[in-house]
Amino acid sequence: LGDLDRAVADYSRAVTLDPKLTAAWRDRAVVYRYLEKCALAVADADRVIKSNPEDVEMYALRAACYAALGKPKLSLADLSRIIRLRPRFPATYAVRAWVWRALGRPRLAAMDLAVFRRLAGRKRTAAVVVAYAKSFIGLPYLFGGASARKGFDCSGLMKHVYGLFGVKLPRHSKRQFEAGRPVARDKLQPGDLVFFQSARTGWHVGLYIGANQFLHATARGGQVRVDSLAADFYHRHFKGGRRVLD
Q: CA 3, CA 5: separation in Å to the nearest integer?
């Protein structure tokens, strides 16, 4: 984090010397987002978007920050702008479906997921897989569950998500740990499976989404949600990562 703090300081000096240096505002917004300083990231993204109203990446960053700040309607507005600019990019529909669900609009969420499935087809890119998995955030945990209608357990969610893209995973998390190839913690990439094991809870699996975070269906939280690998329980019981994408 020290390097990132120095990066922020350097970008800050750059924009002080030349407030019209859009690239510095843009890069600082990305660093702020990584540091989870979402309010500051939004402020920088605002400047960039004012200069370039078609900067899709800044809309995406700002949408993610609004969601983290508990402002789903603002996130929805930015996601809708991205769809107008890039109507054939499937991941945005999946993320917007999650926002619709958070706003209590399940029919609109279902419509966006239908578009996502049509556009995504069998595109097995990490961004598309992660976006689809995020669309289930907030869905209830159900032991033995493997259905978007009723709920998921941890391995049921992973099997369902990857099944859409033609990757056949075993049903149980311990068996899923045998799929793909091993990945060290410091080599994890979005889309990798992450595994945990403890004497009390047994095996558990989630999907790494970047920035030291993973998505999973958890009985502890009662739903599909995002947690940090740095959290004490997950840090202590991390078993390993597996890469199942080509």
A: 5
Please tell me which residue in 154, 160, 235, 237 is annotated as part of the active site: 154
Give the whole-angstrom CA distance, residue 119 versus residue 44: 31
pTM greater than 0.90: no
User: Active-site residue among 38, 216, 235, 237?
Assistant: 216
Separation between Cα atoms, residue 213 and residue 216, nearest integer Å? 10
Is 204 among the catalytic positions? yes
Tens digit of pLDDT for each residue in 15-62? Answer: 999 999 999 999 999 889 878 799 999 999 999 999 999 999 999 999
Tokens matching residue 17: 């010397």
Q: Could you tell me how many residues make up the chain?
A: 246
3-state secondary structure of 200: coil
The catalytic position among 65, 204, 235, 237 is 204
- Residue 205 has phi, psi (to 5 degrees) of -135, 145
Does the annotation mark 38 as catalytic? no
